[in-house]
Amino acid sequence: MKVLVVGGGGREHALAWKIGQSKRVEQVFVAPGNAGTAQDDSAPIENVEIGDTDIAHLLAFAKKNSIGLTVVGPEASLAAGIVDAFSAEGLRIFGPNKQATELEASKVFCKNLLRHADVPTADFHTFRDAESALLFLDEREDSSLVIKADGLAAGKGVIVCANKAEALEAVKRITGSDEFGAAGKQLVIEDRLVGQEASVLAITDGHTILIMPAAQDHKPAHDGDKGPNTGGMGAYSPTPLVTDELMRSIEEKVLVPTVHQLKRMRRPFKGVLYAGLMITKQGLKVLEYNVRFGDPECQPLVMRLQSDLVDVLEAAADGRLDEAAEMVWDPRPAVCVVMASEGYPGEYTKGHPIRGLTEAAAVPNAKVFHAGTKLVDGQVVTNGGRVLGVTALGNSISAAKLQAYTAVKCIRWNGAWCRKDISDKALE
């Protein structure tokens, strides 16, 4: 079978690497891919110069090359309707259709669905313009709030505000600048939840749900969860925060009611259902949903996955996930550390040569997944804000962290930086 992976980030490199290990797969194409997928000789991977939202050319490529399964990484591709287009042509594709993708593409839609499905979440209000949002804030007592842009904003559309003044500024920033574009046309204002975050990803065909081990992302840019939100500065799996009992509660109170509510709304969901959760003193709460593999959560998860990922993705795409075997996981934890460009999540420069990748690849039980990289005259250079996801397994979380940071220390470029405390929450 030939498989097409759509996207060019760390998640897509990880998916292509794992899919390429399947005995059933002869070739993995990645569109557009990055320097890592171009050079990864551990699996039969080849880049294709087609953008991840160029649906017409992706569709033509899949037909011409007899692609047996297409796996979609980025939310932008899903929101653009790639699954609808491929399905209409009878091509097998893994991911939710455009209507179901609204669960991530619209924060307003997501919060309303959670309310109707009786899924626990923070109290919230939605607004169609800045004036009504500012008036609402003016009339409220000073409190800690979260302001969310309604649409897709590359993981940066959520602003946590300590007080009313910060909330007023956040509303003006989202609605009054070009930074968020169409994503900021509607707003959600919700109470700030206090607790620890966890990510639980599940594969579903709209009927059966296969839940993956819990992970913990690190959204704020700097150590100790300080600084602005990013697309994610690292992740580890599993997290001791999510016990077996809590996982059963997540399935019963979060995932199952959400899948059923989408079915009732005639938006049946196939793909990865990613619940961003906050574990509070008042109990479990849903922060948001994503509708695809998380980045960087995907990297430690695929490092731990021992069974054939293709079997599960294909079964979900075909609506026969009940026939698929349970996924088998390495009991060892995995830690992913994201190395970023200077200035990220703000402005940054590209094109810096990256050194030390060969040395990092030699670190036992470590794998460097590329995200924002490209090849220029055979040299790997930076091409994004989040550049690499350095991931490692270990017999304990501490051991996995040590291996990941040992590989990180091998890698250098002008302005490279990372958080130093990825996975430390597990040790507290």
Automatic annotation (TrEMBL):
Key word Nucleotide-binding present in the record? Answer: yes
Q: Which GO terms describe its molecular function?
A: ATP binding; metal ion binding; phosphoribosylamine-glycine ligase activity
Name the EC number(s).
Answer: 6.3.4.13
Q: Which UniProt keywords apply?
A: ATP-binding, Ligase, Manganese, Metal-binding, Nucleotide-binding, Purine biosynthesis
Q: Which GO terms describe its biological process?
A: 'de novo' IMP biosynthetic process; purine nucleobase biosynthetic process
Query: Which reactions fall under this protein's catalytic activity?
Result: 5-phospho-beta-D-ribosylamine + glycine + ATP = N(1)-(5-phospho-beta-D-ribosyl)glycinamide + ADP + phosphate + H(+)
| Record InterPro entries | ATP-grasp, ATP_grasp_subdomain_1, PreATP-grasp_dom_sf, PRibGlycinamid_synth_ATP-grasp, PRibGlycinamide_synth, PRibGlycinamide_synth_C-dom, PRibGlycinamide_synth_C_sf, PRibGlycinamide_synth_CS
User: What is the top-level taxon of the source organism?
Assistant: Bacteria
Pathway annotation: Purine metabolism; IMP biosynthesis via de novo pathway; N(1)-(5-phospho-D-ribosyl)glycinamide from 5-phospho-alpha-D-ribose 1-diphosphate: step 2/2
**Cofactor (UniProt):** Mn(2+); Mg(2+)
- Give start and end of each ATP-grasp domain: 111-318
Which PROSITE patterns does the entry mention? ATP_GRASP, GARS
Can you tell me which family this protein belongs to? Answer: Belongs to the GARS family.
Task: Please report the name of this protein according to its UniProt entry.
Answer: Phosphoribosylamine--glycine ligase
Species of origin: Bythopirellula polymerisocia
